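The authors assume throughout that readers already know how a fold can be written as discrete tokens. For illustration, here is how one protein appears when written out as sequence plus structure tokens.
>
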Amino acid sequence: MEIQQRLVAYCLTITNHLRDPR
């Protein structure tokens, strides 16, 4: 199952956008 990896990627993307929104 690669659901956890997808969740981590999603969290990382959200954090990145919050840190440096474009």
Residues 13 and 19 are 10 Å apart (CA to CA). The chain is about 75% helix and 0% strand.
